[in-house]
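Our example copied in:
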Amino acid sequence: MKQIKAYLKDWNYIRILKLVLGLSILISYHYNNENLFLMIGTVLSIQAIFNLSCPGGSCNVSTDKDTKQIVKTEKYEPKN
């Protein structure tokens, strides 16, 4: 039980929202048999359960103010 509490302690509202949406889309797949519902519901549920996100953490919700930027971008200016 302690492992489950420790696992759920790090969940934020986005993860809970992804899980709820994923499960509701999977339930709608059960009634409609649309393959698109199956794919979207599976992806959202897997992202929520395993805490997968966009590449490079660009979709990550920061919890600390001292977190460093993972992806550095620069403005592209073409040379004439």
In short: The mean pLDDT is 82. The longest helix spans residues 13-32. The chain is about 55% helix and 0% strand.
